[in-house]
Amino acid sequence: MTTTRMRAEIAEQPVALRRTLDALLPAVPGIARLAERTRQVLFIARGSSDNAAIYGRYLVEAHTGRLATPAAPSIATAYRRRVDLDGVLAVAISQSGKTEEIVETLGWAADCGARTVAITNGAASPLAEAADLALVTEAGDEIAVPATKTYSTQLAALAVLGVGLGADVDPGDLRRVPDEVARLIEETESSPALAAMVAELAPVSGAVVSGRGIAFGTALELALKLKEACYLHAMGLSYADLLHGPIAVVDPRTPAILVAAEEGPTLPGTVALAHRVTGAGARAYGIGGGEELAAACSHALPGPRLPEWAAPLGLIVPGQVLVEALARALGLNPDLPRGLNKVTQTD
């Protein structure tokens, strides 16, 4: 079997995560000092980084009691309107740190009164230099266009940010993440469910990917990867939104991929959705969710044995392995999706 760069970079994640956590956990006191006079978090991101920011938003709101919101960069770059950001911690996320729109929006946020944090894999990037505090991930060079190790290390940086903001979590849980990711890669690749899911997804043109709460960003990121690398019409939705109408698209030709941590308040709803999907004669594929979700699904891949707040750092990994394997089965090169570049510039 030919090893793609995407597959090689998936395998590098345990080391990249360990390096990133070693580098960033000592920054917790500095984060706390910077955020002392702030009350709200504003996330600035695009693409995979935006999906990481969804995790950050749920983590901050569920575990620190602060309001967290996504920025609309066009307010800064197109409308050029000033907004009162006094008391706001603006967090810009970009793997390269070179996306001009994100750099400009972070500068705009500072000019509007926000304190600023950059999360980037580029230590000497314009984004890192523009921020009051840079949380530089240690993913190393990423060659494949679909983000894998840069995405998971962004999640690690956001988890550290949450700890710095006073999240009611055990930071020691993060030390378990690299070994869990290594286990997930090995168990996913040896799972009979992987081959079955690839075989059943290969003929379809579309799929729904769903999760809720802290797992919602994982669902969005997996849907994006299926679009990028497999050219699949994948729709990422919260299961709450899915039940409001789009559930109608799930049928024997349009399966659902459901992601969940092994614990937490959204797991029962995810399991109920799996039963509804299979009860309608469609296929439901689980990622994570423990034995309960696996029993409700047609096939299931393992998830991380981590508490809900830290689970997304590993939950995306089986999905990455699935996407890479499906792309190869379709005769596609997941390293170089058509029409995409590693650094995307937006207006």
From TrEMBL:
Residues 31-171, 197-332 form the SIS domain. SUPFAM superfamilies: SIS domain. Keywords: Aminotransferase, Repeat, Transferase. Its EC number is 2.6.1.16. GO terms for molecular function: carbohydrate derivative binding; glutamine-fructose-6-phosphate transaminase (isomerizing) activity. It holds the Pfam family SIS. One of its GO terms (biological process) is carbohydrate derivative metabolic process. Coiled coil: none annotated. InterPro entries: GlmS/AgaS_SIS (IPR035466), GlmS/FrlB_SIS (IPR035490), SIS_dom (IPR001347), SIS_dom_sf (IPR046348). Signal peptide: none annotated. The keyword Repeat applies. It comes from the Bacteria. This is Glucosamine--fructose-6-phosphate aminotransferase (Isomerizing). It comes from Thermomonospora cellulosilytica.
